[in-house]
Amino acid sequence: MRELKLPEALPGVDAVARQVGAGLLGGEVAIIPTDSVYGIGCAMGADRALDRIFELKGRERSQTLPLVLGDAADLPRYAKDVAPYARALAERFWPGALTLVVRASREVPPRFRAADGTVGLRVPDHSFVRALSAAVGRPLALTSANLHGEPPARSARELNPQLAGAVEWVVDGGASKIGVASTVVDATGPAPRVLREGALTEREILAALS
Questions:
Q1: By CB neighbour count within 10 A (0-12 exposed, 13-18 middle, 19+ buried), where does 159 fall?
Q2: Mind listing the pLDDT tens digit for each residue in 92-121?
């Protein structure tokens, strides 16, 4: 495990992103800070790394991981048949703590989609995450960095040592700005449906569309 302290200046952030990004493209796994909580992830398309994340977390393989995008403009690239209200929510809350469950486009490999052909997409409000996605050149499959049943880590100090010691990279970016998981909204139907209320409340979601 290589632990890197995230610099405050943007050139340093980009340099760390390139270093970690090269590892992810080689099939490695990283724990990184986000605006909500710390996440464990890999590059989209890295099948073995994806399997390792499920194994490390003790999570059911029948589930899938959300994809983190570097830019909100990537939504139509990785999603298809996006409802107007979903676009409106993305415009209002991205970058931010909102995950939209949408129908995956052909750009998303089958193993990175749910069985019903959907995928969760998010653009975090964190410069390093977006820089890392840009360095990798594709989305990141990212989930909370904790063992199944444990609370998510809000800082590198809160990481489970067993989990942190089993990955190639741990990026310490200090305490997460929000400290609460993202809100997950099913955007595949005629109206939004909140699957998990996190940093954003259902009232805030609905108010943004009124």
A1: buried
A2: 999 999 999 999 999 999 999 999 999 999
Q: Buried b vs exposed e over 166-196: b needs ≥16 C-beta within 10 Å?
A: ebbbbbbbeebbbebbbbbbbbbeeebebee
Which pLDDT does position 104 carry in this prediction? 98
- Return the structure tokens found at 172: 């310490």
Give backbone dihedrals phi and psi of 126, rounded to 5 degrees, phi first.
-150, 120
**Closest C-alpha among 37, 207, 182 to residue 121:** 182
Residue with tokens 């970016």: 173
- Please give the domain boundaries of the chain with CATH numbers for all domains: 2-207 (3.90.870.10)
Residue 53, CA distances (Å) to 16, 61, 164 in order: 21, 10, 12
Q: How many CB atoms lie within 10 A of CB 113?
A: 16
Whether residue 2 has pLDDT greater than 80 = yes
Say which amino acid occupies 158: E
